[in-house]
Amino acid sequence: MSLFRKGLAVLMRIPMKAAATSGQQLATTPPFPPTNDASSSANFFESYPSRKVALTDVKEWMQASIAIPSDKIEFVDANLEQFSKGYLSLPQEGRRELLLVLARDYDVNRARVRELMAQYLNLGFPQEPESITEDEQSRGRVRDEAFLASCYRTERNLRIALKPMYDIFFERLNAYPGGLKILAVLRADLLLVIEKEKLPSLRALDLYLKEKLITWLSPAALHLHQITWDDPASLLEKIVAYEAVHPIRSLQDLRRRLSTGRRCFGYFHSAIPGEPLIFIEVALLKEVAKAIQEVLWDDPPFLENEATCALFYSISSTQPGLSGINLGKFLIKRVIELVRRDMPNITVFATLSPIPGYVQWLLSKLASHLKLGEEESENETDSSEIDFSSTLKEHVLLPEEERMICESGKALADGNSGIEILYNILSSTNSEWSKSDCLLSALKRPLMRLCIRYLLEKKKSGKAVDAVANFHLQNGARIERINWMADTSERGIKQSAGIMVNYVYSLEKIEENAMAYFSTGHINASSNIYQCFQVRNCEIKLFTIFELVYI
Amino acid sequence: MSLFRKGLAVLMRIPMKAAATSGQQLATTPPFPPTNDASSSANFFESYPSRKVALTDVKEWMQASIAIPSDKIEFVDANLEQFSKGYLSLPQEGRRELLLVLARDYDVNRARVRELMAQYLNLGFPQEPESITEDEQSRGRVRDEAFLASCYRTERNLRIALKPMYDIFFERLNAYPGGLKILAVLRADLLLVIEKEKLPSLRALDLYLKEKLITWLSPAALHLHQITWDDPASLLEKIVAYEAVHPIRSLQDLRRRLSTGRRCFGYFHSAIPGEPLIFIEVALLKEVAKAIQEVLWDDPPFLENEATCALFYSISSTQPGLSGINLGKFLIKRVIELVRRDMPNITVFATLSPIPGYVQWLLSKLASHLKLGEEESENETDSSEIDFSSTLKEHVLLPEEERMICESGKALADGNSGIEILYNILSSTNSEWSKSDCLLSALKRPLMRLCIRYLLEKKKSGKAVDAVANFHLQNGARIERINWMADTSERGIKQSAGIMVNYVYSLEKIEENAMAYFSTGHINASSNIYQCFQVRNCEIKLFTIFELVYI
After folding, report:
1. Tell me: the pLDDT tens digits for B207-245?
2. Predicted structure pTM score
3. Predicted interface score ipTM higher than 0.90
4. Which residues pair with A171 in a beta bridge?
5. Least confident span in A310-324, A467-481, A522-536
6. A221-351 — its CATH code?
7. Which candidate in B107, B120, B141, B152 is best for mutational testing of the A interface (most A CBs within 10 A)?
8. Among the listed residues A76, A227, A234, A232, the one whose alpha carbon sits nearest the alpha carbon of residue B219
9. CATH H superfamily, domain B358-547
């Protein structure tokens, strides 16, 4: 990454390593420190690894940042600066210990809370309305405002007392230049720790911090900026580092994504200068693309003003610590508004999205089916298992599919049945199958069909289980089409069996769709998708439908 | 103001009316509406007066914005838009009623709070630490996390229950584009109502909103922008409208304040685009100016890089609704940092500031002295009054001053004593005295001397009673010099008897001064000012000192 020092122009000929720091890995070793000055953030690469700080020092700076009274606020900044630098230089174990100290030692003062509660309950609340006579009511009104004044006072004190002591630490960090970034790093670390140890105190800390971040990162406080090739290298290197969907492979690749026929928009917050919190990449096309290869590799062969479709092909959040704070929804809406205003010819807004959970889900289904099959032949199954297995049997492979897989799959994987062969093919470490024409034609039908079932049927708490599907559905998009061999990259084959989805945003339907999804869990999909879903036994029709282009 | 439509360049020859909408008047009739789009805000001038909305409608939009559950958030924005437009079109009385409804009907749900309190107190808190045996302690630790989990849950519910229902209204407005501006207008109106009726419910509403605004407007979330002649007219017209200290009289005046030898910096928030929340005007000079006339009228006769002093001659907050949220302090610090970086020759950072409370204070002191004098001649005074009157007598006029005022003042005002004449001169509706050389020389000494007493001595809750003095002192500045006939404008004479103060910001002393002022109320002033304060009987020395230039 330090190659960037030498200037982007010189480096145009040197291919870059695929973003090693992309995605979730950022949580543990944030590449950028807090700075008072946007321009100096790039210097971090030099200064970061050389510093060594003791955990006890970092704890002391944290404690001082909390303990300094408000009238000595001038000392807080110096401590926060020390803390920020120190915290970033700590290894994961040190951060974990610090977070535990914060969660436990800077918790709510419960003695004070109970004292105020006793005071509040003794304020002399009036009786319940039904038991009050009219005379009492009118007397009540007179003393109303005076009584309310004591309520307000005690309630305010209670609100203050119910804040954990770490509240002031968060507030002060938020006010400190660069502090918001530290808060995001802190929460990312917290989420990593919680994944392993579900301690109530850490979860309470996380919930509290998340709520603070939501109010600070209100969409109205973010500004949209179109990222172009004219932006500083220090910003562009972040796009390279954070692109989580389709890694940027070279400077040519980056340049293409920012040039004619392409757009890149980021949401920025003043407290984190020079770095988007989230960004989206858009291709201007004549029709909705069916494969990511066309978008990433082909140069646009037409003029921008001939485009009729804006395709969102990548959306990446740069801060793992802002997980659960849906900035993407607002970003997509703002970008649609902007593109519509600037390019009235563009009337279709669609995505080309991965299905990151598909293969994993399918493998687990195939595995339970295989296990059930074994058990069935060994002993009697109880009634609940029968239900489960029969549903699965119905769902997994049709007889024709079973036959085709057995015929074509044997070359690549062992197995006594189509299901076993499919399982072995999909779980193998390589993705050889996607290079065999014979296997591709045998697997297309079952994998496409099961993919639709996965998207439409698989839910968790009433929402689509696939994270990307859930994201677009809750934003009010519709599942329009699924595309075979749409992402033939290693990751595309591994995660989504090479399939990608076009979600469509119809502006006039966004609210309606989102509300239906929220209230009833109804998944909006095109009629073609629903037909495929229903006609799973009419094999010929199925093939026909997948060949249709219907956007 | 609509002249701006035709473009600033064309209008260079047309003098503008002095900002009729400047300062506090904005509170009641905010000139700019909330918009989704920064560029359209200027259109408000056309659309604003024509709309008429019923109060009941505005109430309903407000109620709907609060009542819509979070899973139907899509409907909220439409209601907030209606509400924002409707609210701005209401007359003051309608706004007052709406604020009362908000404060009273959307208050804390006290039944729910008491229910949760009972629940909390029944959680089974452990005994106080001193009465716990070691054995109990170790058992306690085991159940600690489980017990804490219930604490966290109930505390979180309590925090939610203790939020007034209007909290969600504020949160939703803050997330809505243009909503932050509406919140500022709402609070400005609230402050106006509270000034007249100190209802506890309204004060609780104000306190709550103020705390929310403080966390949303954290200095790290604001961005500094240097405002220049190249900025859009829609931004520059706001500088004209909001300049509260020295009204901008013409486009030439505006241009001069943004050109060579001058700087103007604003603090902007992404949610209020195209409009600074606060801005500061700076003159680059060779020495600290003694009169505002030099700064406003003279063209800088030297090159910028010859300047050694940055003079802050005006700081204006544009949002009366953000009163009590000290953004100015952070702005001054940021500007000092920026100027030091860009222009290392500049080593002195000073202000030229009015003393807005001086004449008003002096008049009330003179009046009580006159009243006491009358009472003294009529009847015996009790002991407390003796103390008061003797202190005052000692303070007001020295014999030599008394004599000079009697001699010179008679031409302009009646009176039996110097004090009475001074009172009549200063309370007259015109400011004739400032045009008479004779009176100027008679009044200079007492008015300068008393001004120092006012600045150094007059305190309220341990802080300087003058708002501007308190602002700079709490930011860590020092009172360096006071200047006679430094602001000869109508307002300058009326408010400050034409006197202005130079406060100096010495970067290395800012924190120390601010802390001393906070903790002990110590007012930092130059040794010359303190000498004048102490040698009030050595008249000759006094004159000498005031002629010194000591920065």
Report:
1. 999 999 998 998 888 999 999 999 999 999 999 999 988
2. 0.77
3. no
4. none
5. A522-536
6. 3.40.630.150
7. B152
8. A76
9. Malonyl-CoA decarboxylase, catalytic domain (3.40.630.150)
